[in-house]
Amino acid sequence: MRGWRWQRRSWNGTRAVGGMVLNQVRAVFFDLDNTLIDTAGASRKGMLEVIKLLQSKYHYKEEAKTICDKVQVKLSKECFHPSSTCITDLRTLHWEEAIQETKGGAANRILAEECYFLWKSTRLQHMILAEDVKAMLTELRKEVRLLLLTNGDCQTQREKIEACACQSYFDAIVVGGEQKEEKPSPSIFYYCCSLLGVQPGDCVMVGDTLETDIQGGLNAGLKATVWINKNGIMPLKSSPMPHYIISSVLELPAVLQSIDCTVNMSA
């Protein structure tokens, strides 16, 4: 397997990709959260709105931030089983537990629901597909098939997809929660290939998570994997090793051209 390869090519103007010709790459699979949309940033904005609510309406002080911090931890450790509960009940429970752990007393389901729905609606409002990302996807789709491949509960992910209005930019959309297995299982990648009528060796996976996006692409034998490392973090030695690393999805067209040239030269 290749060593770490950094691709940080500069862009001119609006970073358009017009005129690109790709012969060896036939399809690109994109992750959604924190790859195409800033889910983490939208969630932070949702938490800030909840803090404002708790402070202004319920006169909480520092407890407001403590509650939101606790919920964030619970979300990061969340294990969702759709056969036993729905995502709304589970996430409302996160808020209910965080409030009770912080304030004590009896559980307050009504306040928990108010917090949850405010957080959820606010973050959906901020899940936006940026104009430069739309332009990139539009140009790429002139050359290759595009597929959105996202893990997660089907209700949650479909709401995000609807909120950012990205459907028209893809030839197919696959939500892990609607399949038997999610990333990094090879089966979901093979399913994506079948939808587009391509082989794994024709495809590139692009995402921000090494353990799912990159490991899954490697497991399925895709042509290449591209890791979006926005914060320049150094992965653990035991982490999956992507073929390419970029700091923004907008750098992808240059990487795709590099992949295409590399394949052509080795043919």
UniProtKB/TrEMBL annotation:
EC primary class: hydrolase
Keyword entries, A-Z: Carbohydrate metabolism, Hydrolase, Magnesium
Top-level taxon: Eukaryota
Pathway this chain belongs to: Amino-sugar metabolism; N-acetylneuraminate biosynthesis
InterPro entries: HAD-like_hydrolase (IPR051400), HAD-like_sf (IPR036412), HAD-SF_hydro_IA (IPR006439), HAD-SF_hydro_IA_CTE7 (IPR011950), HAD_sf (IPR023214)
Entry cofactors: Mg(2+)
Reactions catalysed: N-acetylneuraminate 9-phosphate + H2O = N-acetylneuraminate + phosphate; N-glycoloylneuraminate 9-phosphate + H2O = N-glycoloylneuraminate + phosphate
Pfam families in the cross-refs: Hydrolase
EC numbers: 3.1.3.29
Biological processes annotated in GO: N-acetylneuraminate biosynthetic process
Gene3D superfamilies membership: HAD superfamily/HAD-like, Haloacid dehalogenase hydrolase-like domain
MF GO annotations: N-acylneuraminate-9-phosphatase activity
Family, similarity comment: Belongs to the HAD-like hydrolase superfamily. NANP family.
Protein name: N-acylneuraminate-9-phosphatase
UniProt organism field: Lynx canadensis (Canada lynx)
